[in-house]
From TrEMBL:
PANTHER family assigned to the protein according to its UniProt record, in alphabetical order: 2-OXOADIPATE DEHYDROGENASE COMPLEX COMPONENT E1 (PTHR23152:SF4), 2-OXOGLUTARATE DEHYDROGENASE (PTHR23152)
GO function term, MF aspect, one: thiamine pyrophosphate binding
Name the record gives this protein: 2-oxoglutarate dehydrogenase E1 component
Organism annotation: Bacillus mesophilus
Transmembrane regions: none
């Protein structure tokens, strides 16, 4: 390009374009990578702009020299209105105006006057100004009004230019404004009166009982109504809602349709503990122990014109935000069609989620950030979640300035480029408009969006609490503040849409209806006793998990038949090709191949499989390799996607570095997709402790509390190899301590065949009454150990054995004096060392491996004890410290079952506060002592 051409291009920029392009060029000069590719390419072609005098001269011809400085100042003014308008907005119902500085709005801050602004053509300072904006003054007044009312916006953190432009246009063109005809306004008032009346009735009737009222954030219910209405119009099939206890009873009653009489019954019969009605639950899910009423979820089916839409409010414990990933997993599962091979792509409009957060919990609970991080990852994305912060400006008794280090409760979302809208909860029509906007954004961009619903809390954290002791001035203000229903009624009266008497009659009608329902309930069932379902008996029914050897051979062949033009990493190809010999005479199937064959046969049976975890595609220990990478072009190939006989989908993803959110997601997925085998793998079993709330509140107790079924599999690498305190223990003692009422299965396996059969057993029971989670302590060093490999016939003709006896021991039962019980890796260590022992030892002791730790195989162990008439000692052997591992729980079973007169001994590490030593030499010494003590036949007594 010649000099004249370059000069003409540079001179074509003026107004806001000029400022933008020159600012971008300055950034380009400092760091070319700081501007986008298009601009960088342009600047490379243009070279530097003409001299400053030439530029000023060009612009001066357009607007005159005297206004150049005013134009620059006006551009800054309008930019700051967009950037900082939220600081001056009237979003706080308890304040008359914005509580932050509004200096950025004042013209003298920019050395501007109204007259100067009026002389500037609008298109010089606002490129996309609406046609009715003629000059800078009108632009200033319009944007000042748009950005500083009862809705405030934060979009500056959005990097995508087209997205930002859409957001700005939507707001600045005032598309967010909704026309509310009279009937819609009356309908909205009626809803607010229902919401308020329900809370008032509970307050008057059940004095002092906890309900965590919605009052101060009443608009949450009509907003959810509007969202559901929008979803129904777009043929959505499932809408999932996650929320904590604030306002939950009101949402259950009015959004989910839980009958008033059922809620009243719960209050009447059990003030703070859920007792389960025998009838009339209308989609409410219960377990056998139940939960407090403000934790329970519900399902509501809404019949649309073409299909039934299901609204699901997820059960939620008091661990506040931990329901977030659970809801996301449910949503993802509802979006996918899993009954075809390959990867199941989600239909993002088929289902969507709404998460209602607390203003203290949103920045305070780390699981919120973990869940937000999932939002655009390919293994977890759901096409955007609509977040609502139910902002009552308090956390229990803690003021906002003591609960966060940010200006707003919503600021965390900025890091994930989520648009933020703040809205005054006392402006009903703006609240509805914001919800419409959020829904449209989610549908267009398939991204999360956040509404900060700013209100207050009329009473204490719960209704037994007096907030005046900690926030006296605030609650004096709240006491004198009219409710949103009252305020909106006054608005409608002032607009002559109804009379004051009509409004008062509506209030009376609501209260009268509630009283009538309560009176009938009291007469009919005040003393009715409620029944609580009982858990099913412990144990899992025996199911056929065999697969013919011909099918297994064919699957193995297909797994190793990748496309000819696919270049598998040579070292890996050599390793994988060894599997071709697994079904030859004398061949062995190792742990990784057994797992792959299990997955393949489950897909063959028509059951979907989903596996996620940190590094699960390759396997933390480089053993799995279910995803192959072409070493020449990095293309990916999943052999399980190309099996000819597969009849269901297979999903495999490396997860982000998260335990809580990812495990919660997979639990939610398994609850929704009950026909699928869903597995989560910890990088090391020790890391599972980061997800303890998900385990305790959902996986262990979800069925007992809520009747919520899951067959989630947790794979926890476990075993003591001298790798230190955080790379040894999957903390099986914690799972065993929570094992009761047949709530889950805990296994510690010692062979590839056992792993194959337990996975197949789990897939068979996923969607039946016997479904329950499965916790497997998987090996690390044993993944390639010869003694864990199995023969093909063990897969084709075998089954999962609760108890596995060590071959070569106890062959003469009357000679056996010592019976060793063990589980997992230590059993292989014993078997290895036994080969070096005097053969006579094998006659004096017998070794049995307890493969399923819970439900404990009582009958099998009891029968085992009976075989040895001269038994003197039963010894439990483990690698873990005495206060950890299986012993603290299983010793009760062993002592109850052992024959009279037989001693019970423990062999393992001493009690410890840390799971293991970090010194390899100490570890080896301890391990050698454990093995030696276990194989030493003694007269009895416990060994330390």
């Amino acid at each position: 390009m010649n000099n004249n051409g370059t000069k003409k291009v540079w001179e074509s920029f003026y107004g806001p374009n000029m400022g933008y392009i020159y600012e971008a060029y300055e950034k380009y000069q400092v760091d070319p990578s700081s501007v986008d590719d298009t601009l960088r390419s342009l600047f490379e072609q243009l070279g530097p702009p003409p001299s400053e005098d030439t530029t000023v001269e060009t612009v001066a011809e357009t607007v005159g020299n005297q206004d150049l400085k005013s134009i620059v100042s006006a551009m800054k003014l309008l930019r700051n209105l967009r950037r900082f308008g939220h600081l001056a907005a009237t979003i706080n119902p308890l304040e008359e105006m914005g509580s932050k500085s509004s200096r950025f709005k004042e013209l003298d801050s920019y050395n501007l006057t109204r007259e100067q602004l009026e002389r500037i053509p609008a298109d010089l300072v606002w490129e996309d100004a609406p046609h009715f904006i003629r000059n800078g003054l009108e632009a200033y007044e319009h944007l000042s009004n748009v950005y500083s009312q009862s809705i405030a916006y934060e979009f500056e953190h959005i990097h995508d230019e087209s997205e930002r432009k859409w957001l700005d246009s939507y707001i600045e063109q005032e598309k967010i404004k909704i026309a509310f005809p009279k009937e819609e306004r009356i309908k909205l008032l009626d809803r607010l009166l229902q919401v308020e009346g329900f809370e008032k009735f509970l307050q008057q009737t059940f004095v002092g009982q906890k309900r965590f009222s919605i009052e101060g954030l009443d608009m949450l219910v009509p907003m959810l109504d509007k969202l559901i209405e929008s979803g129904c119009e777009d043929h959505t099939e499932n809408i999932f809602i996650g929320m904590a206890h604030r306002g939950r009873l009101n949402v259950l009653a009015h959004v989910l349709g839980k009958p008033y009489e059922l809620i009243f019954s719960e209050f009447h019969h059990s003030p703070n503990k859920e007792l389960v009605p025998s009838e009339g639950s209308r989609g409410i899910n219960y377990g056998w122990s139940g939960d407090v009423k403000y934790h329970l979820g519900a399902n509501l089916e809404v019949q649309g014109e073409e299909r039934t839409i299901t609204i699901n409010l997820a059960n939620n414990p008091s661990h506040l935000e931990f329901v977030n990933p659970v809801v996301q997993g449910m949503t993802r599962a509802a979006q996918q069609e899993r009954h075809q091979k390959g990867f199941p792509n989600p239909d993002k409009q088929k289902a969507f989620s709404v998460l209602v957060h607390g203003d203290a919990a949103f920045p305070g609970e780390g699981v919120v950030a973990e869940t937000l991080n999932l939002s655009r990852l390919k293994g977890y994305e759901t096409g955007g979640t609509i977040h609502i912060i139910a902002n009552n400006q308090l956390g229990f008794t803690t003021d906002m300035e003591d609960s966060r280090s940010t200006t707003y409760a919503s600021d965390l979302a900025k890091g994930f480029e989520i648009p933020i809208l703040h809205v005054n909860a006392d402006d009903p029509e703006s609240c509805i408009a914001v919800m419409v906007f959020a829904y449209e954004y989610r549908k267009k961009f398939n991204k999360d969006i956040l509404i900060d619903l700013v209100g207050y809390r009329r009473f204490g954290h719960n209704e037994m609490d007096d907030p005046g002791t900690t926030q006296p001035q605030l609650y004096e203000k709240i006491k004198n503040h009219p409710t949103v229903a009252k305020r909106y009624m006054n608005v409608l009266v002032s607009k002559q849409l109804l009379t004051e008497d009509e409004g008062k009659q509506k209030e009376k009608d609501v209260m009268s209806k509630l009283q009538t329902i309560f009176d009938q309930l009291s007469l009919q069932s005040a003393e009715e006793k409620k029944t609580i379902p009982k858990p099913v008996a412990e144990g899992i029914p025996v199911v056929d998990t065999t697969v013919s050897v011909d099918v297994l051979k064919n699957i193995n062949h297909n797994l190793l038949s990748w496309p000819k033009d696919f270049n598998v990493y040579p070292k890996l190809e050599k390793i994988l090709k060894r599997r071709e010999k697994a079904f030859d005479d004398g061949g062995r199937v190792d742990w990784a191949l057994a797992e792959t064959l299990a997955f393949a046969t489950i897909l063959h049976d028509g059951k979907p499989v989903r596996l996620t975890g940190q590094d699960s595609e390759r396997g933390t220990f480089a053993h799995r390799h279910l995803v192959l990478h072409d070493f020449k072009n990095n293309d990916r190939y999943l052999p399980l996607h190309h099996l000819p006989d597969a009849r269901a989908s297979f999903s495999l993803f490396n997860s982000p570095l998260s335990e809580s959110a990812v495990l919660g997601f997979e639990y939610g997925y398994s609850v929704q997709a009950q026909e699928a085998l869903v597995l989560w793998e910890a990088q090391f079993g020790d890391f599972v402790n980061v997800a303890q709330p998900i385990i305790d509140q959902f996986i262990a107790a979800g069925r007992a509390k809520w009747g919520q079924k899951s067959s989630l599999v947790m794979l926890l690498p476990h075993g003591y190899e001298g790798q230190g305190p955080e790379h040894s223990s999957g903390r099986m003692e914690r799972f065993l301590q929570s094992a009761a009422e047949n709530n889950w299965t805990v296994a510690n396996l010692t062979s590839a065949a056992q792993y194959f059969h337990i996975l197949r057993r789990q897939a068979i029971i996923t969607d039946g009454e016997e479904a329950r989670p499965l916790i497997i302590m998987t090996p690390k060093s044993l993944l390639r150990h010869g003694l864990t490999a199995s023969s093909p016939t063990e897969l084709s003709n075998g089954k999962f054995n609760l108890l596995v006896e060590q071959p070569g021991t106890g062959e003469t039962p009357e000679k056996v004096k010592k019976l060793v019980l063990c589980s997992g890796k230590v059993a292989i260590d014993l078997a290895t060392e036994l080969e070096n022992k005097d053969p006579e030892i094998k006659n004096l002791l017998h070794i049995a491996r307890v493969e399923q730790l819970y439900p404990f195989p009582k009958s099998e162990v009891k029968e085992l004890f009976k075989r040895f008439s001269n038994l003197e000692e039963v010894c439990w052997v483990q690698e873990e410290p005495r206060n950890m591992g299986p012993w603290p729980v299983l010793q009760e079973y062993v002592r109850d079952l052992v024959p009279e007169g037989v001693k019970v001994a423990y062999v393992g590490r001493h009690k410890r506060s840390s799971p293991s030593t970090g010194e390899p030499q100490i570890h080896k010494h301890e391990q050698a002592r454990i093995i030696e003590d276990a194989l030493y036949v003694t007269e009895g007594g416990e060994k330390e």
